[in-house]
Structures are given as structure tokens and as C-alpha cells.
Request: fold
Amino acid sequence: MFRNTLITTFRLFFKYKAYSLTNLIGLATGLATCILIFLYVQFELGFDDFHQDAENIYRLEPHWTGQGEDSHWAASTGNIIPTVAQKFPERLNIILMRW
Reply:
């Protein structure tokens, strides 16, 4: 029974080449897109997981608005650490890493 289904599938594939090729290209594109999205999400969710206390890592993102611009960036000055330590006493530990 499987043999008959396989033979019929190949016959239809070669009989209707354009339709079959369109379906295969669509299937391949959809699978490739899903795999790429999965890998991107896995990478983003796994960021900094190698640290011992990964759930306690936070990113400070300064926000500046001026002269008609709205800017966000991931760099901050070192003098922000005492302010964070004072305003958020529930933090476990603040480590200043210098590269």
C-alpha cells in the first residue's frame, strides 16, 4: 500500500511539475524560516546563562531625550553603581567588571 502511494506521488510530481515545485519551495522556505526563528529565540533566551547567578543579571539602559532625538544605549558610567545600590537595596551583589 505504501508502495502504491509513493508511485502515485512521484507520478503526480512529474505530471504537475510547476505546482509541485511551488509547494516544495514554499515548504522549504517555511521550514527554514521556522528553524531560523527558533535558533534566534534560543540564542536570545540563552544569553548570559553561563553565569552562576544568571537570573540576577540586569541591564542598565540610559535614556536621553534632547534636541528632537530619543536615544537609548547600553553604556553607562561607573558612578551609577552607588545610586543603584542606594535605590535598590534588595539587590544581592553589584559587581563592577572592567574590561
Notes: The longest helix spans residues 17-45. The beta strands are 63-66, 69-72. The two ends are 66 Å apart (CA to CA).
